Amino acid sequence: MAYRIRPQHDRQHVDEFRQNPIGHHSPTLQRILNTLRTGPLSGKYVLVCTKPFAEWTLARHSGARGKPMEILPEHTYSSREEAEWAVFRMRWKAHTGEDLN
């Protein structure tokens, strides 16, 4: 059975991700991330490296091979960590309906 995110219970792990978006995570945070990363590709928020090692931009996956992603230029970041945090927030909202500040 797939892990189901419970916002009230799992919110305590959001700070763990915010402080360390890249690297090893606790088992519960890893289950949350696995849940956020699964599901249909269509409409899923992803990162596109627009300038190697310097700039990342949010995009929405088209869900179809060969069809371009929708680049969201208003969501451009100069660090991968901030970009990962933005994707996490977007996916969290998509799964739970809750905004993370």
Q: What global shape is seen?
A: globular
Radius of gyration: 14 Å
Low-confidence stretches: none
Note the beta-strand portion.
15-25%
SSE run: HHHEEEH
User: Overall mean pLDDT score?
Assistant: 93
Q: How does the helix and strand content classify structurally?
A: alpha+beta
Question: Widest sheet: strand order?
Answer: 1-2-3
Share of helical residues: 25-40%
- Supply the number of helical segments: 4
How would a textbook summarize the main sheet?
A: 3 strands, antiparallel
Say how many strands there are. 3
Compact summary:
The chain is α+β, with helices and mostly antiparallel strands. It is 38% helix and 21% strand.
Describe this protein's structure.
The protein is α+β, with helices and mostly antiparallel strands. The protein has a domain of 61 residues. The chain has four helices and three strands; from the N terminus they run H-H-H-E-E-E-H. A three-stranded antiparallel beta sheet has the order 1-2-3, covered by helices on one side. A hairpin with a 3-residue loop joins strand 1 and strand 2. The model has no long low-confidence stretch (mean pLDDT 93).
How are the SSEs placed, and which strands pair?
Blueprint lengths: L6 H4 L3 H6 L7 H11 L7 E7 L3 E6 L9 E8 L2 H17 L5
Short key terms for the protein model shown above:
3-stranded antiparallel sheet, alpha+beta, 101 residues, 3 strands
